[in-house]
Write a structure and sequence with these properties.
Layout: E1 2-7, H1 17-23, E2 27-32, E3 37-41, H2 49-61, H3 65-79
Antiparallel strand pairs: 1-2, 2-3
Length: 80
């Protein structure tokens, strides 16, 4: 069985006309074997930037100047 995720960017003309618009632009999970293809819509569960804002602010409060300095030194050491 082949399993693949893909996005229907172009018109989905193999679907019935009443479904084509609602499936265009969605991410799908496709399962295929010799006898059938099963396509499932994937729900968009990615948070928006507005939703992430408060969480990122809280995380940022826990980062010290020493953490930043250590991270910079680590990256610079990797580049050598």
């Amino acid at each position: 069985m082949t399993v693949k995720t893909l996005k229907f960017n172009k018109p989905v003309d193999f679907l019935p006309k009443d479904l084509q618009d609602t499936w265009q632009g969605v991410d799908v999970l496709m399962n295929a074997d010799e006898n059938r293809i099963i396509i499932n819509k994937l729900e968009d569960t990615s948070p928006t930037l507005e939703e992430l804002g408060p969480v990122l602010k809280e995380i940022g409060k826990k980062i010290s100047q020493k953490d930043i300095d250590d991270a910079v030194l680590e990256v610079r050491a990797e580049k050598k």
